């Protein structure tokens, strides 16, 4: 198995499981699990990227790390976190239709509550399109959104962490 994958998969799996657990815990605490799990991911992803890339540098690559190695390992970590988190949230929502319905209803209520502001800023047509999209939203849409919002910050943090941890000589 590839050294980078061997050094990365455990950090990605653990990070993804933490994201799914946070989703469930936030729901149990009566909070919006979609927003808070995304926010939680912004703290969790850089932590697992840092320790995963550092682990690869120190244990898997004899103390050396090029920028491209850091980017590769980071990509694997945040991709696995995103996949595990997205799949886990999708499974939770499939097993709990009432949670899915509650999340969907909350999003529709927020949209309707802010209708005047939204119409003023982007127009009635955009508001109606967004409203229709929310009415047609599926569990897979929520899981895909979570996946995307793990990948985007993951790329950003990977660039920074790869530069910080880069070491081309011993």
How does the SSE layout of this entry go?
Blueprint: H1 3-28, H2 33-60, H3 67-95, H4 97-113, H5 115-122, H6 124-135, H7 139-165
What does this structure look like?
Helix content is 86%, strand content 0%. With 170 residues, the protein is mainly α. InterPro entries: DUF4199. This is DUF4199 domain-containing protein. Keywords: Membrane, Transmembrane, Transmembrane helix. The chain crosses the membrane at residues 12-30, 36-55, 75-95, 147-165.
Name some characteristics of this structure.
170 residues; mainly alpha; elongated
In short:
With 170 residues, this protein is an all-alpha fold. The chain has seven helices and no strands.
Strand content: under 5%
Poorly predicted regions: none
Largest sheet: none
Number-wise, the strands total: 0
Radius of gyration: 19 Å
- Oligomer state equals single chain
Mean pLDDT: 93
Helix content: over 70%
User: What does the overall shape look like?
Assistant: elongated
Whole-Å distance between the termini? Answer: 25 Å
Class by SSE composition: mainly alpha
Tally of domains: 1
- DSSP helical segment count: 7
SSE succession? HHHHHHH
Organism: Belliella baltica (strain DSM 15883 / CIP 108006 / LMG 21964 / BA134)
Protein name: DUF4199 domain-containing protein
Keywords: Membrane, Transmembrane, Transmembrane helix
InterPro entries: DUF4199 (IPR025250)
